[in-house]
């Protein structure tokens, strides 16, 4: 649109219309007239691209200039629709006045667009001399010739002609209805024919295992939810384990989350081990390990971590963080008897990890030695310290 306004001279509102047409011929060869006309038609439809009434006059003039003679102008519909909008916008009023001047006289061609806007008047029928009448895209005229001769008076024919040309009959058309016929049914040799047999007897085959499978699934969910609240009886625990091992979709069916894992560990540590072995295949396994690290120190938690460490290849950072958490938890226990009991449990846990070579002692050697020295009065801590020294001596030798 910007290229059109600059290359066609629409912005030159101080030039006469005659000079505007000559300038347009110099800038645009004949082969590009129609394309430039399309651009200017778009400018009329998007009025915000034209700055004022004078530019609208220039645009209309060039559309008329391109399509000479006016009767065959391909842009007559665009001009007609713009002028025939019946609103009080100053641009439309100026355009209506300008089109009413058709055919353009030498006085009009020697005037500028600004002068035409200044001399603008309200015109009642601006399209009276415009050689375009809106017709339907397809249709027949309602004016038909009477094949039979009659002896009517001449005044009658004059009255009919006046009604035809002065009224709105010339603009009326008869448009036939557009009928869509239903497509015929395709019949081909390879086409299958749908049959509706009436002499068949149906026998139903019942699947008696459907309700049983649903019942077993409901029992499994109930038992698993119960396992997070209390310790299961041995038969119940074995039933849940069998269900976990026999179902391939056990990972998707587990009603558990990282936040509910600590409750399962405290109430049923053996079941928690089986669940963690299954969850090791999921992408959320790291969240469950983080939940174990943040748990309070307890015997079931130590058992679970010891067993999964022996069964899985866990990240070294997890084992280090868990050992540091156990050591700090023992130091924070205010009651001496409770503290001594948990120190023994932690020492046994660490001894098992070290003897089974499940932890790299050198990564946390300083923390473990300090823990043993702090609780040197406890026999298990002294034994752990001796184990560390023996390992240190072996590596030195």
Short summary of the structure?
This protein is mainly α.
How would you characterize the overall build of this protein?
It is a single chain. The chain is mostly helical and 397 residues long. It has 20 helices and two strands. It has helices at 2-7, 17-27, 33-45, 53-66, 76-83, 90-100, 106-109, 113-118, 154-166, 209-227, 234-246, 250-253, 261-267, 269-279, 285-293, 299-311, 316-331, 336-355, 365-374, 379-396; strands spanning 140-141, 173-174. The protein starts with a helix and ends with a helix. Residues 136-140 have low confidence and may be disordered.
Say how many strands there are: 2
Mean pLDDT: 77
The percent range for strand residues is under 5%
Shape: elongated
CA distance, first residue to last residue: 89 Å
Uncertain segments of ≥5 residues (pLDDT<50)? 136-140
Task: Kindly provide the radius of gyration, computed on alpha-carbon positions and rounded to a whole number of angstroms.
Answer: 49 Å
Spatial sequence of strands, sheet with the most strands = 1-2
**What helical percentage do the residues reach?**
55-70%
- Count of alpha/pi helices: 20
Helix and strand sequence: HHHHHHHHEHEHHHHHHHHHHH
Biggest sheet overview: 2 strands, antiparallel
Structural class: mainly alpha
